Amino acid sequence: MCTRCRHDLDQSLMTEEVKEEFNVIFQWLYDVNLIHTPSIASSDSYHMLSQSLNNLVAEEKREHLKRFLEEVKCFNPIPSTNSFENLQPSSKKRFCRQSTNIFKSLLDMMSPHDNIDFVWHTIAENSKGTSSSNSALDKNLRLVLTSLAEAYNNAQHWTVRRQILSIMANDLTFSMILVFIPGLTAYRFNMARHHAYFEGKGVVVSDTKNSTIRYDDYQLEHFIEFIVSPHICTDLPFGEKELHLSTGETLLIPSTIRNLAPQRIITQYYNYCKEHYGDTFHPLGRSSLFSILNECSASTRRSLQGLDSFSAEGSTAFDILFSIVDGLSIIGMQFSDADELETRSSLSYSDFYIIIDIILFL
Hints:
Blueprint: H1 3-13, H2 16-25, H3 43-71, H4 89-110, H5 116-154, H6 158-169, H7 174-180, H8 186-198, H9 217-227, E1 233-244, E2 250-258, H10 262-276, H11 286-295, E3 299-300, H12 309-328, H13 337-355
Parallel strand pairs: 2-3
Antiparallel strand pairs: 1-2
Helix pairs in contact: 5-6, 6-8, 12-13
């Protein structure tokens, strides 16, 4: 609170009557003879206080139970003890007898038309049977888990171990199985649980390795036959290469030169497969074909003229056509730039088609 607010509060509320009342209430603060000694509570005092509170709660519950029994016309004494185990044998018998009378009174309310002694003995027998069956079940379960753990440790192959572990992985926790199989890793437990969920408990684990095959042999052979055909590759009259086989044998093969660039070869290959096979044959992907061409090294022809007479004569004929297009403007025929460019492109495409593409259909 700021000084101004405190000043306003003093003027509005702090009257003489209020001041006198405060002086009377807080007079003990100014007594010099008054000494305050805080008490240090020990653990024993806390324990005694807690025990007394528990006794009060228990006493209150007994009072509620007593009033309830009186309302239902049951005036049997209510036994109580702090420790049943520490009672003497006679006191235990008396406690059981008094408790039995109270329980029978409650059963009489719950089943008024039956013999209470018969109902009571049936409940007692059922309780004994359940207790004995649970103890026998726990013993048998431990025996089964011990046998499975022994079989798991005796298995030599990881598939057999996963098969055994899948029998109990879905029904027990990892910490419980770890008691019977020390050293078991969470990965093996999770894989066994995965196997039990998707394959079934105790199903034989298959260790067959399925390698991924991205292409078939006939697809590879078909493309290799295409690229070594005469219209794609031409053997040079000079030069040889050595091919070293895995058996140690060395083969001498003549140097070859490709008539097309890799992109053009792949385009022609797709067109060839589509026209000859349709949908019955599926060639390899474009990236796979590029990889094969990179591995099958060969030179690429840079110029067709001068390598053989047929190619040279064909190239000469198209050179004459190009010169005619250039001479038309000299004799007075006017061409737009677009028309001239289109004519030259058509001649270039025709030249390339006659030299390369038409060979596929011969």
